[in-house]
Amino acid sequence: MPGGYDTYTLRVMVTSIQLVFDAGDPARLADFWAVALGYVIQPPPDGFTSWEDWASVMEIPEEDWNDAGALIDPDGDGPRVFFQRVAEGKSAKNRLHLDLNVGGGHAAPLEERKVRVDARVAELAAAGATSVGPHEQRDEYWVVMQDPEGNEFCVQ
Fold first, then answer.
1. What tens digit of pLDDT does each residue of 105-140 get?
2. pTM score > 0.90 for this model?
């Protein structure tokens, strides 16, 4: 190279992720999170009109058809969300949780963010979530909630 310098391009590889929820009732939890995230149930493989049709052809016993389910971002930007049936129930506070950013960020006045957050909290409660309670600190406002199986998340 001219001047004796080598040019290196550093490529940072992004690892794609999938979020996984352990669940007692994967279909119910998938339905809730589809509402919460604006996602859709992942369509069945090509050639099948439903997951039930696919499971039947795969000879999966009907009692196992709700062992798993998945959501996808309809725009293709967000990670896939997978729900898998587990025997044990939730036993402790989540070590990781989702924040649903619905308030408009700091560009929006606090009172306006509160109205947006509270409206979304009401929608999510109607879909099966439970409100643990609102929190306000300095210029921040959020509501801690639990999904239908008790997984904590925040609406901010």
1. 999 999 999 999 999 999 999 999 999 999 999 999
2. no
What CATH number does domain 90-156 carry, 3.10.180.10, 3.40.50.300, 3.10.20.310, 3.40.1190.10?
Answer: 3.10.180.10
- Pseudo-torsion of CA 28, 29, 31, 33, nearest 10°? 170
Q: Give the DSSP letter string of the chain.
A: -GGG-------PPPPP-EEEEEESSHHHHHHHHHHHHT-EEPPPPTT-SSHHHHHHHTT--GGGTTSEEEEE-TTS-SPEEEEEE-SSPP-S--SS-EEE--S-GGGS-HHHHHHHHHHHHHHHHHTT-EEEEEEEETTEEEEEEE-TT--EEEE-
